Known about the structure:
Two copies of one chain form a homodimer. The first copy, chain A, is α+β, with helices and mostly antiparallel strands. Helices cover 29% and strands 25% of the residues of chain A.
Amino acid sequence: MHPFAPGPRDRVDALGERGLIASIGRWLGTACPAAPAGIGDDCAVLPPARHRQLLTVDPVIFGRHFDAAVQPAAVGAKLLKRNLSDIAAMGGRPRAAVVSLCLDRATRVSWLREFHRGLATAARRHGVAIVGGDVAEVPGALIASLTLLGEADGERVLIRQGARSGDWIAVTGRLGGSLASGHHLRFTPRLAEGRWLARRGEIRAMMDVSDGLAKDLSALTPRGTRAALDLTAIPRRRGCTLAAALGDGEDYELLCVIDARANLRALQNAWRRRFSNLPLTFIGRFLRNRGGQNAPVALPASGYEHLRPAP
Amino acid sequence: MHPFAPGPRDRVDALGERGLIASIGRWLGTACPAAPAGIGDDCAVLPPARHRQLLTVDPVIFGRHFDAAVQPAAVGAKLLKRNLSDIAAMGGRPRAAVVSLCLDRATRVSWLREFHRGLATAARRHGVAIVGGDVAEVPGALIASLTLLGEADGERVLIRQGARSGDWIAVTGRLGGSLASGHHLRFTPRLAEGRWLARRGEIRAMMDVSDGLAKDLSALTPRGTRAALDLTAIPRRRGCTLAAALGDGEDYELLCVIDARANLRALQNAWRRRFSNLPLTFIGRFLRNRGGQNAPVALPASGYEHLRPAP
């Protein structure tokens, strides 16, 4: 469905601002609590937070993150899931979100209805309350920006910093071909996996793969080292080349760093007991780097043996 | 300064996404803590919150909330202050914000630098940390949407609901002419005043005046009543008509509801001791409404005497 109406019917400007906000509340249904916990007061009022909190924001933009070929419900779900993946990457639990909408006057009401229903379904599935937002007119645009507030699951939060020379690198799931396969719309954010990893003391650092493994790895790479990868081990989506797995992005998998002294076999066995349907693959390690470059390289032969724990 | 560069110089696309994000961190300076408390990880990590929390979002949009005549630093300050006023309206304390930017490739770097410096100055003044955000390209647009997280100052949060028939209505400061006078850029969000009011047991409900007194009052008006206003008491900005004070909006003053049984004189005296430079004016009360309409009316003569406590 094209988000803009070609004629005078089904246009959002017929609703007016108040009418649109009331409609959004109805479309969100139980995903939006009553004010002041949800839409309708100056701020949304949320419960206190015992643990450290997590805050992230990401948009979806017509013409950039989606086009007329994408179902509006899938756009709404993706808006939330992009942000959920950031909470997953810290080992956190999502709590509440607000949505800022910028839209053309001719935006279809039916598009917005399906968008919000898709957002609400994803929000209910992951226990997120949509508690407020803002609506503004911007000619020619359709932009929804979601800010997500989460909380650490316990005392521990996994950040990007923390890797040391010798540490192992692992990734969940399979990489590459996200756009072509529709994975960028259908993916499940790795929330349970992220929390499980944050409770394992041998995990030192974590992030999600959104720009592509090769690019994202640099954020985990400690100074004076480079990532040495076993290129044959990198888990690829069916039909994907190595280049696609390294560079496509929008994988929304977790990339984590494991203490050099960890028992990889024990970690792998524990993972398999908990997440039998999702691979956790050891793909390389950080090695001391004598040169100035820190781009990933192929792992020297001596590093391979530890990468494939026996089943 | 026009935010878009007319020629090839001073354009944001020359920085690239990474360069722009690094520049934003520098422009924000001490208003942006180091990662993971600030920009640079999957989420910003914030401390736990003992009291209930407040979440709100509002944008500034080129062509709608500002134009080329407005100094970019004032745009940045206004973006934060609009949201601070919503925290003030609940009696809360602001903590941290994230900013979502959508901009044309030709946006001037110098405009963005001054915008972020203005935002940072306002953030430091009000104790807000700018902890993260997102940057995306949208042709022809310049939109900044800020999500602000705050916390209640104690056990109490003032919401819009709570007024009863007979309760008094009061407003801080003066109303009207916000755009013409520049108040919409220069205003000070009523944070200290909002917290003070939230600690007074006789205040039952509160909101900020952003759409204009006449329109905003309806959100406080309980079912079966209407607001009866002493039109001569409404505090107007110098040179403003009554219509301007009732309808202009962007006043960012606090509008509160006081228990019918309260001692207005004692409240007024306590207010003056604490806030000697800002008037708190009693402007009317909620009265039972026999008709179906709930638009404000002029207060009947019997209601006036209590409205002007002796000094």
